[in-house]
């Protein structure tokens, strides 16, 4: 097995012998064998152990077991205790997902803090097959069905060359001690149910199921690579990003096939689910304004684009600008100066500059977002106009409207910042003092 281990590292180009590796060790057979193989091969390693506090004294026993092994073999050992159940309840996620989030966040911090190059986990072939079946049951796309890969970012999985049966046999042969997790027999967890009940049934159908499943996962991974190459070409054509978010060109998108698969690949990184895709497609040929939400993002069907931006409620934000203020840096950058009116003064025509009659404004000025039903008098007009109508005329999208700031004097809009002044505050022939506000 040592030769297979070293050969797999070389074949998959997992790491260089000079790199320092952090090993995630639970105390179970798979991670203890991984630890044995790494140390006997002479690689530079440190050990990280997570105590999720889910099995009381048994969890503490696992921690003590790994700690004693590391002390005996003079290995750097890091341990972390987590309030896993509280975190799962707070986030509204499963215990399994909570444990995953907590441990990988901690592992990432350890890599940076201790100048370690890579994280090694003890996933093996059975984990690949179980993950494949779990994702298959969820209706996953090709990425989910492609299985656990040998290397992903800073995570390496050097045990994927072997399976659970071989691991247990090797541990027994070499008398490698390990701990058995009692929760592994609890079929409340999907993975345990698949391991104990579903896989044995599939092997009754075909004794070579595990071997064939690994071949299928490999084939799907290669197919997925071709798919991603094509998606990169499509993304370059229909997709763009700016500081406000992402945009997908609707007319171009509608020429593509298969539309459902392509659209999902474009939006899934923002947390949108496959179940939402059909409704989004249905909106493509309808009027603008329909909105869809993931956990942190909103997708808006606009005239020409699907607009994706972080969903943050800003409507209640209000900022005050006092009379002696010369500059603000948040939520936008504004500089203010007072100018005495001279005969040769020329007001600025730049949209990012507002020249106002100082005597017409009341401090503190208020910087806020627009309000439904609000009116202003656009510069050069004699009548009032609804802000919402102004936005329609200017073809503003929903995110555009929400990102616009209004500078107000009391209850009256003075300046749609960067867009249009209110005529009531303009400079006239009798203006003596000018308030110049510039958006940087």
From TrEMBL:
An example GO CC term for this entry is: cytoplasm
- Give the GO terms filed under biological process for this record: tRNA modification
Sorted alphabetically, which keywords does the UniProt record give?
A: ATP-binding, Cytoplasm, Ligase, Nucleotide-binding, tRNA processing
Which reactions fall under this protein's catalytic activity?
cytidine(34) in tRNA(Ile2) + L-lysine + ATP = lysidine(34) in tRNA(Ile2) + AMP + diphosphate + H(+)
Cited Pfam families: ATP_bind_3 (PF01171), TilS_C (PF11734)
PANTHER family attached to this UniProt entry: TRNA(ILE)-LYSIDINE SYNTHASE-RELATED
- Matching HAMAP family: tRNA_Ile_lys_synt
Protein's recorded name: tRNA(Ile)-lysidine synthase
* Organism encoding this protein: Aquipluma nitroreducens
Gene name linked to the record: tilS
């Amino acid at each position: 097995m040592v030769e297979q281990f070293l050969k797999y590292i070389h074949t998959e180009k997992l790491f260089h012998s000079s790199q320092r590796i952090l090993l995630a060790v639970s105390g179970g057979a798979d991670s203890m064998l991984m630890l044995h193989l790494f140390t006997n091969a002479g690689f530079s390693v440190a050990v990280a152990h997570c105590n999720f506090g889910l099995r009381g004294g048994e969890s503490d026993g696992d921690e003590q077991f790994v700690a004693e092994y590391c002390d005996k073999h003079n290995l750097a050992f890091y341990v972390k205790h987590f309030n896993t159940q509280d975190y799962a309840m707070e986030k509204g996620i499963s215990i399994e997902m909570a444990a995953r989030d907590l441990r990988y966040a901690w592992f990432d911090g350890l890599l940076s803090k201790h100048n370690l190059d890579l994280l090694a986990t003890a996933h093996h072939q059975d984990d690949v097959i179980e993950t494949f079946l779990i994702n298959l049951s969820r209706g996953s796309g090709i990425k989910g069905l492609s299985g656990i890969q040998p290397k992903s970012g800073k995570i390496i999985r050097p045990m994927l060359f072997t399976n659970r049966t071989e691991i247990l046999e090797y541990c027994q042969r070499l008398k490698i001690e390990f701990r058995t997790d009692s929760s592994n027999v609890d079929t409340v967890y999907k993975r345990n149910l698949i391991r104990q009940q579903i896989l044995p049934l599939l092997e009754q159908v075909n004794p070579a199921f595990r071997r064939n499943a690994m071949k299928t996962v490999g084939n799907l991974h290669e197919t997925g690579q071709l798919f991603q190459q094509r998606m990169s070409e499509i993304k370059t054509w229909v997709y763009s990003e700016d500081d406000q978010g992402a945009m997908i060109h609707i007319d171009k998108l509608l020429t593509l096939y298969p539309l459902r698969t392509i659209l999902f690949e474009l939006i899934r990184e923002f947390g949108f689910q496959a179940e939402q895709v059909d409704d989004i497609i249905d909106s493509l040929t309808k009027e603008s304004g329909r909105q869809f939400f993931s956990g942190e993002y909103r997708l808006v069907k606009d005239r020409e684009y699907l607009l994706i931006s972080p969903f943050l409620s800003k409507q209640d934000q209000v900022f005050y600008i006092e009379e002696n203020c010369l500059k603000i840096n948040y939520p936008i950058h504004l500089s203010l100066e007072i100018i005495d009116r001279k005969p040769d003064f020329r007001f600025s025509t730049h949209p990012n500059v507002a020249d106002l009659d100082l005597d017409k404004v009341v401090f503190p000025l208020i910087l806020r977002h627009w309000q439904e039903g609000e009116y202003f008098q656009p510069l050069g007009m004699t009548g009032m106009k609804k802000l919402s109508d102004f936005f329609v005329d200017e073809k503003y999208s929903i995110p555009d409207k929400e990102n616009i700031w209004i500078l107000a004097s009391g209850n009256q809009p003075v300046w749609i910042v960067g867009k249009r002044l209110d005529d009531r505050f303009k400079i006239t022939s009798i203006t003596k003092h000018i308030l110049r506000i510039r958006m940087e």
